[in-house]
Structures are given as structure tokens and as C-alpha cells.
Amino acid sequence: MKTIVVDAGHGGADSGAVYGGRLEKDDNLDLALAVQRRLEARGQRVVMTRSTDVFLPMTERSAVSNRAGADLFVSIHRNAAESHAANGVENFVYLDPTTFEVEAAETVLGEIVRAGVQRDRGVKRGNFAVLRNTNAPAMLLEMGFITNERDNQLFDENFNAYADAIARGVLLVLGVR
Known about the structure:
The chain is of the alpha/beta class and about 180 residues long. The chain has helices at about 25-40, 60-70, 100-115, 130, 150-155, 160-175; strands at about 5-10, 20, 20-25, 45-50, 70-80, 90-95, 120-125, 140-145.
């Protein structure tokens, strides 16, 4: 059994990106909980940084993972841009990732892309606190742009396929059969 920390980005007073009446924190939590259910159904230990609409500081998100001795840390987000034309999914790793982290991010992103996206924006490097301060191999998924109507439509239509894809990718990365 592996330990996977699933981080639903934002929460509580921190709504994350907002578009119309849609809040990033809600999409993140819904998808994170769906991923949790799928991984637990496969016998894995899942530790959630949050499972309700509460605020959790960045340092605490990493601390949850570090205390749990996680084998993998997956943070789930939605992207946003001033241009409503910006679209697609991407996966971030820290600035100096290990080969395993890059391959893990590519594997999970590949599964999501196969589930149906507008655009594969690839694996990128970012200096995000949750990536920087987490001891476990870590990734930060951007599940489409909340500011793009088609990405929102795909998020809603492919919700179960996305949850399945993330869980499948995680299990592949961790060698769980």
C-alpha cells in the first residue's frame, strides 16, 4: 500500500480563481475527493490536505504530506488567465525535479490528456510552495482554465474520466497493479 497526499488547492476564504459564479476552490475539492475515492477503492492510503471548504496555509499543506511520509503528492488546481482564449491542462514540478518527478508528471498528465482536453500544455517547472516544501515527489495539476468556457465544459463533461485518469496515472507511477 502506498500513501498518496491529495491537495485540493485553495479553500475557505481563498476562493482561487473565479469566473462567473464558478470558484476554483470548489472544482478543486470536488475533483480531489473523487480521486481520493478511486485510489482508496484500489487499496491505497490517501491523506487529504483538506476534505471540506476550509483554508489551509501553504506550509501546512506540505507539512501534512511530510508528516504522512507520502510516496506522492498531487495538488489539484484550475488555471486562469486574462485572455479567455487561454486553454488546456498542464502539470508542474519543482524547479530542479528528479527524473522520477518529471516522468510521474508526464504519466499523470498523459492519462488526463487521453481523457479529453482542448490542449496539452505539457509538464512545466514552477516555484510553488507546495512543490518546494514537500519531501515526497510532487506535482501540481492545472485542470484547464476556469476562464475558458470550453475548458469548463470539458471539466464538467469529463469529470469522472478526469478523476479516473488522475488515479490511474498515480497508480501507474507508483507501480500499483
